[in-house]
Amino acid sequence: MILHELHILNYKNIREADLTFSDKINCFVGLNGQGKTNILDAIYLLSFTKSAFNVMDSQNICHDADMALVQGKYGDMVVSCGLKRGAKKQFRLDKTDYKRFIDHIGLIPLVMVSPEDSQLIAEGSDERRRFMDVVICQQDKKYLEHLTTYNALLKQRNALLKQLGEKEGIDNASASLLEVLELQMTPLAEYIFAQRTSFIEAFTPIFQDVYNRISGGNEVVSLRYISQLQDRSLAEAYVRTRQRDLILGWTSQGIHKDELEMLLGEYPLKRVGSQGQQKTYLLAMKLAQTLYLSRTPNAQHDTPILLLDDIFDKLDSERVQRIVELVQSDQFGQIFITDTDRQHLTKILGHTDVQIFHVEKGVIR
């Protein structure tokens, strides 16, 4: 997938920009806080229908503007997103508005690497589940629909549990409603569990190979998927733990409790990994994600677009060189990179044909 042209109007601090890109490497250079990451976020928006950083769409509109527009041209295909304060977001493919935004996910495969990825290590298991979900959703629409429905039913069950927990006892009608929710959630969870299991089995060797190529093969890494569904029937677990869930006020069993362990050797990365090792680990996971999506039989298009936001900090020169050699290979497609130092960027990219944009106070040239 190649993004040929990008038009931005009033998106974050970018008043207006009309950009034409190289099919391979495009770099945005400028000091911190000038708008480099905002350009990458606009590209991300066109793939995922939402910002990578702001949950509320209104936060992505310039402060003194009423609306924003991001539009991208991919070959003969045009994708646009219009944001307006107090109105519903409009997302369009060519001249047709989407009725459901989830129908767009996977059409423009994309992987973003940013400093925010450190949350995969530092934060709770929900961040690592999100990593799995973002990858799988781009190549399996059924998974995305099942996950969306499961989360909605989970929210309903938790609300009911909390409501019933404030009462004394549970009547037949409430018990029946819980059973109906559980009957709906169980097959959805089983499908999600099966797809996550298959994904980790296929993804781990790719990840290990990428990590070895970046690190020089001096360290052993692995991923371990842990789920309650590996050793129990979810339908039976719901019945067995219902009284406890009523006391807790939330659902203790299901795929929303899954974990992805990140291991360096035999130990948790978070505990034993240096800053450089942790960054290498995260980079390898994201680069492997790009390769996985380009190889999957369900891929709708070719190699995903790769966004690299300020990735070279805390890495030694040898690892940086190996990363650059890897992403410049034919295994990767179009790439967008941000950096604060033009000379540093020119040095690490060598004589590669690169398109460079300078960004200052939201102005791109």
- Distance between the terminal alpha carbons, to the nearest Å? 24 Å
Form type: globular
Q: Helix fraction?
A: 40-55%
- Give me the number of helical elements: 11
Beta-strand portion reads 15-25%
- SSE succession: EEEHEEEEEHHHHEHHEEHHEHEHEE
Q: How many strand segments?
A: 15
User: What would you report as the Rg, rounded to the nearest angstrom?
Assistant: 22 Å
Main sheet properties: 6 strands, antiparallel
- What oligomeric state best describes the polypeptide chains here? single chain
Identify low-pLDDT runs: none
What class do helices, strands and sheet pairing give? Answer: alpha/beta
> Mean pLDDT, nearest integer?
90
Provide the spatial order of strands within the biggest beta sheet: 2-1-4-5-6-7
Describe what this molecule looks like in 3D:
With 365 residues, the protein is α/β, with parallel strands linked by helices. It contains eleven helices and 15 strands. Strands 2-1-4-5-6-7 form a six-stranded antiparallel sheet, with helices on one face. Helix 4 (141-165) packs across helix 5, helix 4 (141-165) crosses helix 7 (242-248) and helix 5 packs across helix 9 (275-295). The radius of gyration is 22 Å and the shape is globular. The mean pLDDT is 90.
